[in-house]
Write a structure and sequence with these properties.
- There is one protein chain.
- By secondary structure, this protein is mostly helical.
- The protein has a single domain, classed as Rhomboid-like (Rhomboid-like fold, Up-down Bundle), CATH 1.20.1540.
- The chain is 68% helix and 0% strand.
- It is built from 10 helices and no strands.
- The longest helix has 26 residues.
Length: 217
């Protein structure tokens, strides 16, 4: 990720770095291939969340990845990082860093809570938050005074809807995919996109034009 892109999307850059750091810790501790170690490291566990009140798991699980196999873990991590790099950075540029972080963490936590309630086993991954961004992206463009009339933005929305449908369908076919987290994050994102006020983020400093008129004595 080049320096110009990092300056334009600071939140996305930090999130990617945090996820990579989380995976490095998994590798160093052996948790990426061991479900019990991954659970101790911070995976979502319904019993631990609701009975032992370990609510911190709702957050830490968003920065962990793995399914117990090298290939599955690598694919899980790579797909989420790619989606975050492409969709997350685009959302941050179009709607601002503050709105992006609010939606990412809010929907991610709701997705984790949904997963803890619906599943008995351990669950990890940033997918719930990413589905939250997808849902908020679609509704935000429809509501945005700036973007709803832009052909390019409407084209992005159509592509996002297609990939949402595809991912929800594929998720039904793969037992290890946590569909409750995906649906929980998506619904939360749609709702937040519908209720949060829209403010057009200011242009970057390089695009700001300051007109200084001569003063009259």
């Amino acid at each position: 990720m080049n320096s110009r892109r990092i300056r334009a999307t600071p939140a996305t850059s930090i999130l990617i770095g945090a996820i990579l750091l989380g995976f490095a810790i998994e590798v160093l501790t052996g948790a990426w291939l061991d479900g019990e170690k991954l659970a101790r490291l911070g995976a979502i566990m319904g019993y631990s969340v609701f009975v032992e009140h370990e609510y911190w798991r709702l957050l830490t699980a968003m920065f962990l990845h793995g399914d117990g196999t090298p290939r599955g873990t690598a694919l899980h991590l790579a797909m989420n990082l790619l989606a975050l790099y492409q969709i997350g950075s685009l959302f941050e540029v179009m709607f601002g860093t503050r709105r992006y972080l609010l939606i990412y963490f809010s929907t991610g936590l709701i997705a984790s809570l949904t997963s803890a309630y619906m599943n008995r086993g351990a669950s990890v991954g940033a997918s719930g938050a990413l589905f939250g961004i997808l849902g908020a992206f679609v509704v935000s463009v429809w509501r945005s005074p700036r973007w709803r009339h832009e052909r390019g933005a409407r084209s992005i929305v159509n592509q996002l809807i297609f990939w949402i449908v595809v991912n929800l369908f594929v998720g039904q076919l793969i037992p290890k995919i946590d569909m409750s987290a995906h649906v929980g994050g998506l619904v939360a994102g749609l709702l937040l996109g519908a209720i949060l006020p829209h403010r057009v983020p200011p242009p970057p400093p390089s695009q700001v034009v300051i007109d200084v008129a001569p003063q009259q004595d």
